[in-house]
Amino acid sequence: MSAEAADISQLEHSLWQTETRYDSDYMERLVSAGFQEFGRSGRRYTRNDIITDTSGDTKIAAVLHNLTCDPVTDDVTLVTYICELDRDGTREWSNRASLWHKASGTWQLHFHQGTPTEALP
Question: Which residues of 74-96 are buried (b: 16+ CB within 10 A; e: fewer)?
């Protein structure tokens, strides 16, 4: 994995860590102005929805499986993986895709989608 892919992978993982996901200053820097998400639930989320998420008292317990970073251009990378999320003892599985864009030397999340899937064997 290239150094740049490792950086993007680390940023993607930070979306699934309680300490960073609910840090509005961090998310403000991480999420691009044009961000949108199609959630696992089918709900559509905006940048404001993500930055102002106040469920920070909810601990995130997620494992990202088979994460890959595929450059689309020098400034755009597609990240895909399978997310295993534990919600109070209930496991949810989803295919995930994120589109990261580099602007002024900084990677920002531009798009994210989650789609329900079966558990890994």
Answer: eeebebebbbbbeeeeeebbbbb
Mean pLDDT (the chain, rounded)? 93
**Average pLDDT of the residues in 5-33:** 94
What is the residue whose two structure tokens read 């999420």?
31
Task: List Cβ<8 Å contacts ≥24 apart for 13-20.
Answer: 13/64, 15/98, 15/109, 15/112, 16/60, 16/62, 16/64, 16/83, 17/60, 18/56, 18/58, 18/59, 18/60
Structure tokens at 31: 């999420």
Q: φ, ψ for residue 106 (rounded to 5)?
A: -120, 135
Query: In percent, how much of the chain has pLDDT > 90?
Result: 77
**What is the torsional sign of CA 4, 6, 12, 15?**
negative
